[in-house]
């Protein structure tokens, strides 16, 4: 496979993931108005909340997913994802 096709496939996949992330997180229950009751997200947030007396610590996976679900990916996260995708594409092009 040509390096160009590998690069295009990786960049396209990462670009699609960046666009789809808010929709996927919303469907999982990480909504703009908060975690949807009875959803997968609610179950995921339940364990750390019980362990911490009702609070979910900042920086934990459920907290970050809720933040992205509520506000979308910020400029820094979008840039980091795009940079990571570019680096991955460049690395894969060396092998294919």
Automatic annotation (TrEMBL):
Record GO biological process: intrinsic apoptotic signaling pathway; release of cytochrome c from mitochondria
Transmembrane segments: none
Highest taxon above the source species: Eukaryota
Record Pfam families: Ifi-6-16
Protein's recorded name: Interferon alpha-inducible protein 27-like protein 2A
Record key words, sorted: Membrane, Transmembrane, Transmembrane helix
Membrane topology: Multi-pass membrane protein
Family: Belongs to the IFI6/IFI27 family.
Subcellular location: Membrane
Cellular component GO terms, alphabetical: mitochondrial membrane
Source organism per UniProt: Gadus morhua
Listed InterPro entries: IFI6/IFI27-like, IFI6/IFI27-like_sf
